[in-house]
Amino acid sequence: MAVLLACLLGLFGTIANATVITAIRTGENAATTRVVLDLDREVEWNVFVLEDPYRVVVDLQNADWALNGRPDPPRGVIRDLRFGQFRDATGRLVMDADQPVVAHRVFMLPPQAGQQWRLVIDLKAADSAVFAAARRDAAETRPARAEAVAAFWPTGVPPLPPQRPGSAKVVVIDPGHGGVDPGAIGGGGTREKDIVLHVGLALREALRGMGNYRVVMTRDSDRFVRLGDRVRIARRANADLFVSLHADAAAGRAARGAGVYTLSEKSSDREAEALARRENRSDIIAGVDLSDEADDVTSILIDLAQRETMNQSARLAQTVVVQLGERVTMRSNPHRFAGFRVLKAPDVPSVLVEIGFLTNRQEEAQLKSSRTRERIASGLAAAIDAYFRR
Ligand SMILES: [Zn+2]
After folding, report:
1. Strand ranges across the sheet with 19-28
2. 68 is a domain residue
């Protein structure tokens, strides 16, 4: 552990100038209160709890406060929050609570999609035993009283490696469905999972041909991948973009055209809402136990980091509408939004592209042709490239 700590400190070094904390953001869902601190660089942190009154203390080493605006109001389990310098080099945030509260998750997010470094602290109410354990942990890991923390900085979750500036952009391509979940099926028996895999592989080739993209596929063969795992693959890859590929089915055979969807808690229209409901059933179709999936795709993620990526996702959707529209028929209102589970990575701009309707006889025939699929792939590649070049 000492070696690891030394390595980490060696890697990230002692910061000569103070880290600047530029924002305090808060959000909540039923169980979790999330606090996000925006930082201009990575920082060593220490989070611990105290009682009488109950509070959570966040110390940032060699950091100073220069908020861009007012901090978000306290919410969830937080009754009040205060911040300022604690000793010369320590920026301290104190959150008061009316009940025992613990920080059950603390992690650092590297800069991504135009955002700064972020320290994320997830809080939840605890019973007295859990709180006592957290209190004891803090006491054991720190050599002296809470106020003496400046001398000792447990690393907590090890920081993620910083992104190399100027390195290739990471694009995650997500062909929908697969394995036991065929997705939509056309009148001629064409399966969505096959068509979107072909388009995904063609898109990978097109992006590789451009030279400055690293492509990660959520699947590159006919296998099932959970919706939550697709999101996790994107986050683990430090994705700059996430593009999910689907082909639609409609009750009427006349429906046709491609469309682009971005995440929103409120659907733009009933069609988009029904589509999201269909696409979100993938895990259920595959018989996945959803009980352990609920937490990381809850609305708190939309409330916070997600809010920031909405604009980028919309911008990508627009370049897709333009580039794809030059190559294939688009549906009316080609950019719509709804609550697609697969678009819920909090900090990765994400779009879901419906490349056409398998229930439309003409489009089914077109999508079976590799020429059409390559045209779609080249349109998507051009859209992605336009997005990054702006
Ligand atoms: Zn689908």
Report:
1. 63-65, 19-28, 33-39, 117-125, 101-109
2. yes
Q: Tell me the CA–centroid distance for residue 382 and ligand 1, in Å.
A: 23
Q: How far is the CA of 354 from the centre of ligand 1 (A)?
A: 8
- Cα(17)–Cα(293) distance, integer angstroms: 41
* Beta carbons within 8 Å of 114's beta carbon, 6+ residues apart: 312
Residue 159 covered by a domain: no
Q: Indicate if 134 and 182 belong to the same structural domain.
A: no
CA–CA dist 356, 364 (Å, integer)? 8
Cα 270 to ligand 1 centre (Å): 17
**185 and 128, same domain (yes or no):** no
* Segments forming the whole domain that contains residue 86: 14-151
State in Å: Cα 259 to ligand 1 middle: 12
Cα–Cα distances (Å) from 11 to 4, 15, 17, in that order, read 10, 11, 17
Based on the fold, state whether residues 139 and 88 are members of the same structural domain.
yes
Residue that is last in its domain, among 151, 180, 202 = 151
Enumerate residues 6+ apart whose C-beta is below 8 A from 270: none
> Ligand 1 mean position to 179 CA, how many Å?
13
How far apart are alpha carbons 383 and 323 in whole angstroms? 6
Task: Among 101, 118, 151, identify where a domain stops.
Answer: 151
Residue 343 counted as domain residue: yes
Q: Is residue 300 a part of any domain in this protein? A: yes
Per-residue pLDDT of the chain (390 residues; tens, 9 = 90+): 444 443 343 333 333 578 999 999 988 877 889 899 999 998 888 898 888 788 898 989 889 888 988 888 899 999 988 887 776 688 888 898 999 999 988 888 888 777 889 998 989 999 988 888 888 876 544 433 332 222 222 323 333 333 344 578 999 999 999 888 899 999 999 999 999 999 999 999 999 998 889 999 999 998 888 898 899 899 889 999 999 999 999 888 899 999 999 988 788 999 999 999 888 888 777 676 655 555 444 444 455 556 678 889 999 999 999 999 999 999 999 999 998 888 888 789 999 999 999 999 999 999 999 999 999 999 999 999 999 987
* Distance from Cα 192 to the centre of ligand 1, integer Å: 7
Give the distance (Å) from ligand 1 centre to CA of residue 289. Answer: 20
* 211 Cα to the center of ligand 1, angstroms: 29
C-alpha 199 – ligand 1 centre gap (Å): 13
* CA of 256 relative to ligand 1 center, distance in Å: 15
Give the chain's domain count: 2
